[in-house]
Specification:
The chain is of the alpha+beta class. It contains 26 helices and 25 strands. Helix content is 43%, strand content 19%. The strands form eight sheets. Strands 6, 7, 8, 9, 10 and 13 form a six-stranded antiparallel beta sheet that branches. Strands 16-19-22-15-23 form a five-stranded parallel beta sheet. α1 packs parallel to α4, α5 runs parallel beside α8 and α19 packs across α21.
Amino acid sequence: MEEKQPWITCYLTDILISYIKEHFAEHRGLDYPALFKAVEGFETPSDPEAFLRDVNNWVPLAVLRDLELQCEKISGNKEIAYHAAKAYFTPGKRQLPSLFEIVVQVLNDVRSVLSFANIWGSSQTNYLKLQSFEKEGSGTELYILSQFGHNAGPAIGAINLVRGFCEGFPRLYPFIDETLCVEEISQLRVEGIAREFPDYVVKTQGNHLSIYQRSSQQPIVEAVKAPLTSESVPLSREFMLYTPDAVVVPQREGRIEVLTNRVQKDSQNQPDAVFAYQIVKPGVLTLGPLSYSFQEGQIYNAPYSRFRFEWKEKAKDQKEVAIETIRREVSQLLFEHLKQMQQAEIRMVQFNIEKRRLTLENIRLKQEIEREYSFAGIVGQSEKMQNLFGLVRSSAETDVTVLIQGETGTGKELIARAVHYNSPRKAKRVVAINCGALSETLLESELFGHEKGAFTGATTQRKGIFEVADGGTLFLDEIGEISPSTQVKLLRVLQEGELQRVGGSETIKVDVRIVAATNQNLAELVTKGRVRQDLFYRLNVFLITVPPLRERVEDIPLLVGHFVEKGKQKLQREISSVSPQAMAILLAHPWPGNVRELENVIQRAMVVCKGEMLDVQDLPSEIRGDVSEAKPQPTDLKGIARESSELIEKRAIVDALEKTAGNVTQAAKALGISRATLQNKMKAYGLRGPKE
């Protein structure tokens, strides 16, 4: 359970549910599943009503708050929580827990009853403090302080629940006849109350606060911030011993300094004065049948609430038992039991919620990885990329070995992961290894694992990535760099699905889908004797060729936009666009490093960019070439349009040359221009036919 997360026991939800079912049975009922929908990390129980009525369960405070709102809507009464809590503890209405039975029989003093009420009430949450005190000579008046933790600011329903509990709980005891609990100062915030009534708005000016109806200029309620007086009162032995978490910590001689509902006339000489809002103009807020009344003189926004508790006792029978000693012993044992019970239950809830949080986090991360490496993570709308996506889908549907060929930086690993995350193996791991980055001995150990003592430094047994990827996909990058001896072992795994660790004799079965990649021509490497022919045939089952960036120039604007958005998050830079001149240069560059080079260029340009638009001067000099010096950048619409038309013309020429396999005569005919004109334009744009 997170420290900031407030929790309650289902005793409190059962209080409300019991009252609604008893007094509003004709209503369509509570929407139990809806109570859990907004609670992150808490799974909706299979039977939400039964769960919320089991007093041994714990739920986040948000569930109780939403339940209070539902109950208010059903009853049409903003004080439903007060009535429910008071009625819940009606003597003889329901079977009490065994501890309650003992306490009801033993305790016969109001002060002890309130001490027990404080202990029990505070043990139902991890954020509420309750404390009682008695003023000298007050007779049949005691006082209760309640304080909600900073992580669980009180709502109207919460305060009403406390007030109803303070009146209802003592009535369990046969010697108490009538009770009354009056709130003298309130921890409720005026702003929080207004939020429960959407038609009203709070405005503050200096020390003055007003509540207006949104459609009116006249204040409904007015309040003034004022300093509160305090009084020093002694704590009796019961209140000193049995208060688990004090709202006001006793000072020397067992006295506490508590706030009153009286306002100081002069606070200039009181630097430590506590300020709160006092209502100077009373009024009523309404929302349909619901209403809340501000009474003149009421105190709000105090650091805690103070209740005056009044009661009437029935005549007591004289007991021969030394009840005082028994009462104190039982109270002390009860307090210790409740404290241990609360701590144990909170630890259990903490364990369950942490387990649920980790499960959800794991699911979220898996979903993010799937989005990143599915087709959504590969940018491209060109015809060649659409054809590539078709091949990826086809290969993903089966379990065949895939060989990906492409120049450096074209995104071969992205394609490999797209194959995995669109295949039936996506729930399992995908493991990648660069075969060209490791020595022969180290590569074998990484691929197949090793036994303890297999070589110097092999102090423990270690699984290879074939075993780690069992059930999933293994991506072998730079497959053409594998040595002949390692090729033999790899071939065995591909053929038989089994391997032996380095230095071991045990045969280990593995089920792994192989996706290999290379930036070389494996067929030529076979001719040169660098790659075994049988291994080549095993790898070259389903060939996917990734086109270089220069062959899909129309994807460059999409890629640039993608990398700008990605860089905005990583570099915390607010770049909104790329100038047409800069885009023209990016489109004209041959990109020998392909997509990886383009990403690095955009990232570097975002670092040096001083404005909100990437421009020519932000691009590296090797990308700009002489463009920025040879031709001034157009600043008017006519110049930009001319440059854009040149770019379109260049694209048309490139497409025509590709479609005619570099035949200039046929390309010129397709474009509707002469061969000489086409050659001049090719020279101007620095283009060559593919066959040249």
